[in-house]
Amino acid sequence: MSSVPTTVTLEKIVALCKRKGFVYQTAEIYGGLNGVYDFGHLGTLLKQNIRHAWIQSMQKTDHGEILFLEGSILSPHAVWEASGHVSNFHDPMVDCLNCKHRYRADDIDLHKACPHCGNKAWTDIRDFNMMFQTNLGAAADNTSVAYLRPETAQAIYINFKNVASTNRVKMPFGIAQIGKAFRNEITPKQFLFRMREFEQMEMEWFCKPENGLADFEYWCEQRMNFFKTIGIDQTKLRFHVQTPEELAHYSKGCKDVEYHFPFGWKELEGIAYRGDFDLTQHSKHSGKDLAVHDEATKTSYMPHVVESSIGVDRLFLTVLFDAYVEDMVEGEMRVVLKFHPKLAPIKAAFFPLVKKLNEPMHKIYLDMKRKGYMVDFDESGSIGKRYRRQDEMGTPACFTYDFESETDQCVTARNRDTTKQERINIDQISNYLENLLK
Amino acid sequence: MSSVPTTVTLEKIVALCKRKGFVYQTAEIYGGLNGVYDFGHLGTLLKQNIRHAWIQSMQKTDHGEILFLEGSILSPHAVWEASGHVSNFHDPMVDCLNCKHRYRADDIDLHKACPHCGNKAWTDIRDFNMMFQTNLGAAADNTSVAYLRPETAQAIYINFKNVASTNRVKMPFGIAQIGKAFRNEITPKQFLFRMREFEQMEMEWFCKPENGLADFEYWCEQRMNFFKTIGIDQTKLRFHVQTPEELAHYSKGCKDVEYHFPFGWKELEGIAYRGDFDLTQHSKHSGKDLAVHDEATKTSYMPHVVESSIGVDRLFLTVLFDAYVEDMVEGEMRVVLKFHPKLAPIKAAFFPLVKKLNEPMHKIYLDMKRKGYMVDFDESGSIGKRYRRQDEMGTPACFTYDFESETDQCVTARNRDTTKQERINIDQISNYLENLLK
């Protein structure tokens, strides 16, 4: 096995996702929907594993308690007015006066002609609000306007008091949420990198103002650590510390975890020290006091917030880029996804050497399935071909049942990354997998 | 311990959900959003466990393979035109001519006066389409109309060919999906029973036409079995077999699993033998042939579909109703949620008998947390009070560390359902829990 000097590209990942059924374009048989995707079998399993790893990383923290929340997608005008999204969440937009084609103004050189019709006649640049709007209920008046949330965080802020009081939790604590969010991007791009419908994993940490900076540093370290635990290449990760010019006016500090994509260093996760901006805004707009009472000092204070925010889909894309390897095995080029076994959609594949050995191997496969492992059974083509298929799916282990298996009660276990094979006892298969999954 | 002759009511469940933080109304601090809810810490964990149980029940089937899918919420007009939702998915609506209040026509007696203003002057009954509509992209023309999906099933049908070919799967097989769906109900009601934003777990089973009926019966049995595995009271479950009059025109059979709610027997899950209606519709409308080629007979056929469809939120509500018990313990009335331990949001709680024993018990608690168990630590109030709190949350086991624990390395384990206590070794805590979770 030797690696070949090839590089992963966005095109290779898109093609692999389609070929192996990780991702399909939404409503492809009807021409598709721009910037919106469906996740196939392997994609859904990979996403589930990513979410699980994140939940575990949150749940296991020693620093204090993390509670979970699932807010709704539909949300009323008042929330987004308080958050500033109604007045500020927009992109600059420009139309071609001739063909009416619409562009994001910062995506296009307005000194040049329209790429669509070739004329050069532009409207003024206007603001385009990126929130999807709909109407709730049968009454078609203004009071019924609702938005698809453009981020999950606001559901955490507006439930802060409810969560704190019903769970009898002490400061500091965090509220974590996974869920969909929607942004009406004028020009969605780079596959899963910038989508109109996407999924966020956000955690808002509430603490005393005097602990805000220390807790911000703590979470930066924790979050960078998370990527280690799911096997992301550390040399492709870095912090970008936002400069005072980049920071939002209310922000007290922000570090982006950046990953080295083929199209450059890009934000993967944002960790932001937001001060008391969000809770203060919602206190003002709702008329409800969201301050916390401190028994020790008999005073009230508005908690400070440290936010950790990452996109499931962007992490999904990162994991694919990071796992993608082309190497030479027995003189043949193979594509292999070297996922951390925890993230691998399929944990193991079971092969009968020839079809007449199907029955005993299928029994072993079913047994593993009943134990709750996500496993595959493949009986067609040469064993080498079957290895290649599983390599492309990122399956960490393959087991082959051959003519000797009947007598020695052993199978050949083959490791995805090393391609090394070893003979193991059938009743050791679970242990073999558990060792990989550690 | 003796049971008291009380009955569970919707009001009691709503109050419990609010008190313990299972469910909050969305944007409550802004007056709420009708028919839309947020799930708090315990609610989110319960939902996760319900989803996990369903995924496992699908994944472990011996009958054939179940693949997973996550389709998008946003979907184009063409999909819902083909499915019939654009022309048929509506409720009858009527307005009061005097006060303009709007009602579902079948919810109100039109021979009587308007319950809102007392006048009796109605508009004609009109159809109100229940799909939420929005616009995609910056162009504000008709081509950009998109809908929030009113059900998840269509994403499965339109991806059928993609899923079948990229996963090299043989007929019969199923595609399972969990995800949000949206229906603009004129009058949402009964808490989580009929919501505007809800979550579905749907599985579509694709098979040869000649096996359709047998597979339909197979899945009816399997699905009823599922409710047993999550501990639902079997005497409160029954099948309602749809009569020819109730069946959709294309349907070849439909059984609803009904649960005996305090407000009557209501549908919990629908199992439907849909024939080839859905794939035929999408073949026609998309112009893509969705038929399957049979190698053996060298002919093509349109697979038949058996559907299993259940709402996460409705099952969540069912689980709460089913688990809710009021009984007498030591002369005091207690509320206890007798969840199947698999579904319980918190698996165990750890109590130091007095505060000066906090440290060793907190160490044990952290150790369990690091092992991945969802656990709680409570140091305040009498042990009896702490038991009551955990009973109301449905926590199956509580462990108390007392003055003897230091010397005998044991804790007192207390069972939620029996209230029985036993002394167990600290290193047996994991085993004790694993036995419960079986």
Layout of helices and strands:
The structure is a homodimer of 438-residue chains.
Chain A: E1 2-3, H1 10-19, E2 23-25, E3 37-39, H2 41-59, E4 65-69, E5 74-76, H3 77-83, H4 85-88, E6 90-95, E7 102-104, E8 126-129, E9 133-135, E10 145-148, H5 153-166, E11 173-182, E12 197-207, H6 212-229, E13 237-241, E14 253-261, E15 264-275, H7 277-286, E16 292-294, E17 299-301, E18 304-311, H8 312-323, E19 324-329, E20 332-337, E21 348-352, H9 358-370, E22 375-377, H10 383-393, E23 397-401, H11 405-408, E24 410-415, E25 421-425, H12 429-437
Parallel strand pairs in A: 4-11, 21-22, 21-23
Antiparallel strand pairs in A: 1-19, 2-3, 5-10, 6-7, 6-8, 9-10, 11-12, 12-18, 13-14, 14-15, 15-18, 16-17, 19-20, 23-24, 24-25
Helix pairs in contact in A: 2-8, 3-7
Can you tell me about this structure?
The structure is a homodimer of 438-residue chains. With 438 residues, chain A is of the alpha+beta class. Chain A is 30% helix and 30% strand. Chain A is built from twelve helices and 25 strands. In chain A, the strands form seven sheets. Chain A has a seven-stranded mixed β-sheet with strand order 4-11-12-18-15-14-13, sandwiched between helices. In chain A, strands 22-21-23-24-25 form a five-stranded mixed β-sheet, sandwiched between helices. In chain A, strands 1-19-20 form a three-stranded antiparallel β-sheet. In chain A, a hairpin with a 2-residue loop joins strand 14 and strand 15. In chain A, helix 3 crosses helix 7. The mean pLDDT of chain A is 94. At the A-B interface, strand 3, helix 2, strand 4, strand 5 and helix 3 of A face strand 3, helix 2, strand 4, strand 5 and strand 9 of B.
